Amino acid sequence: MLSNLHELKTMLNHQGLFFCFGGPISQQLMVGIGDTLRNKMKFDDADSSTIVKVFAMFVEQSQNIIHYSAEKTPPNDDKAEMSSGIIGVGYDNNYYYVSCGNIIHNEVVDSLSEQLRKLQVMDRDELKKYYKEKRRNETPESSKGAGLGFIELARKSVKPIEFNVQKIDDDFSFFSLKTTI
Fold first, then answer.
1. Cβ-count burial of 71 within 10 angstroms (0-12 exposed, 13-18 middle, 19+ buried)?
2. Which listed residue, of 40, 45, 112, 147, carries a Cα 20 to 30 Å from 171's Cα?
């Protein structure tokens, strides 16, 4: 296993990934990791605007895992529910990027994919208008924010957001998302 970790680290370094976490994510963990990311980027002399955008995308993508991952640890009397996923932050070709992934129920794949494809083809002005329109609408019960998070990610990303859905079995798929800053 130790040699495999070296191979994994080498692969991550090759892709410019300087932070990667996989496993159960909680709000408390997200705050600690966010502080570490900000400090690392300050050390690397990233400008404050970029640091804020990367942090915002990290938080939004972490919250997507927390709210929508189908892989959850059940809560009990002394422990809160936690959702599992993977999230990474890297720097490649003069851009920072934030990627996340988690297991989702197959029943949401079509609507999720449709929503993201729609965002991929919108320009800045269309995204701004769409965001304002969605904010005025009531939040669907199945959503924690009427899809505003994805719209915000698309607005902050300097390239169209990328996503992939890989079917696992009849019930679940693995959802991946990437934004570029």
1. middle
2. 147
Residue 163 contacts residue 100 (beta carbons within 8 Å) = no
141 found inside a domain: no
d(CA 100, CA 15): 15
Structural domains of the chain, count = 1
Q: Tens digit of pLDDT for each residue in 73-113?
A: 877 777 778 899 999 999 999 999 999 999 999 999 999 99
* 145 pLDDT higher than 60: no
3-state helix/strand/coil string of the chain: CHHHHHHHHHHHHHCCEEEEEEEEECHHHHHHHHHHHHHHHHHCCCCHHHHHHHHHHHHHHHHHHHHHCCCEECCECCECCEEEEEEEEEEECCEEEEEEEEEEEHHHHHHHHHHHHHHHCCCHHHHHHHHHHHHHCCCCCCCCCCCHHHHHHHHHCCCCCEEEEEECCCCEEEEEEEEEC
Q: Which residue has the tokens 């019960």?
A: 141
Residue 149 lies inside a defined structural domain of this protein: no
> In this structure, what CATH number is given to the domain that contains residue 167?
3.30.565
126 contacts: CB under 8 Å, gap ≥ 6: none
